[in-house]
Amino acid sequence: MDMEKGPLERAAAEEYASWFKALADATRIQIVSLLARRRTPMSVGEIVAASGVGQSTVSHHLKILADVRFVLVERQGTSSLYRINEACVSCFPTAADVVMGNPVPAPPTCE
Amino acid sequence: MDMEKGPLERAAAEEYASWFKALADATRIQIVSLLARRRTPMSVGEIVAASGVGQSTVSHHLKILADVRFVLVERQGTSSLYRINEACVSCFPTAADVVMGNPVPAPPTCE
DNA sequence: TTGCTTCATCGACTATCGTCGATTATCGAT
DNA sequence: ATCGATAATCGACGATAGTCGATGAAGCAA
User: Fold this and answer.
1) The complex's ipTM?
2) By the 8 A CB rule, do B11 and A29 touch?
């Protein structure tokens, strides 16, 4: 394998970036930390009430977080219950992973 | 202290986000990993040659990384030598930090 | 069925971001 | 002082992303 020349392959760099992009927004950070505080799943309405942004905006961010498997959804009746994905939290790449050229964790791509 | 109601304070969320934003771009990931591979400082010209994007673009990204203290600069003659900041790499927040509401590391704000 | 509630999706607007080419500033050497 | 090399800054462009209001879709109850 050619790992001597140049930087990371572009593809690997993009995959890494897609991880960090998921947490590169203040609203998403709030949503994630909110879901973590309440250990129990939350409906979209609850998240909207607690986060102070519009319902469509929350839905949008939840979709982004769900695409990366950072949160998990479970439809219950007329409402969607979201909870954070502990497994995804622990496999989230660190800066050291990037710097050491470790293989990129899988979840973001397995959408 | 009020840590029961609502999500993270907006300010803390923004500081967290500013960390992740720094690595939320494939080109910056490449630059960082490139600087880490070569243990020795690199000039902008070398980084340009290895990263395949324009000189002004590289300079722009280096500035972003330097603002967050992720890389350190040292002017030497007519060229600027960049190297990664190991200290900043190790204090880079993890997803677990966000989820557990840990205090945001300092460097990004100390610009 | 008709309503009501909850959420996802759509369309539009704005702001931010990444990229480039060109210009400017700084340093060294002649 | 002038020239050449290196890198930072500027201005502009296109693309992406965050937000909102409005609309649409799915479920439940009457």
Assistant:
1) 0.89
2) no
Domain B10-106 = CATH 3.30.950.10: no
Strand D bases with any atom < 7 A from protein Cβ: 4-11, 17-22, 26-28
A40-84 pLDDT per residue, tens: 999 999 999 999 999 999 999 999 999 999 999 999 999 999 999
The tokens describing B54, both together, are 């324009």
**Residue type at B109 in one-letter notation:** T
The CATH T-level fold of domain A10-109 is Arc Repressor Mutant, subunit A (1.10.10)
Query: Would you state the structure tokens that stand for residue B26, as one six-digit string?
Result: 């494939």
The half-sphere exposure of A10 on its side-chain side, counting CA atoms within 13 A, is 4
DSSP symbol at A103: P
SS (H, E, C) A6-25: CCCCHHHHHHHHHHHHHCCC
pLDDT by residue (tens digit) across A38-49? 989 999 999 999
Query: What are the residue boundaries of the structural domains of chain A, listed by start?
Result: 10-109
Are A110 and A24 within 8 A, CB to CB?
A: no
**Distance of alpha carbon B46 from alpha carbon B40, whole angstroms:** 12
Which residues 49 to 68 of A reach strand D, CB within 7 A? 53-57, 60-61, 64
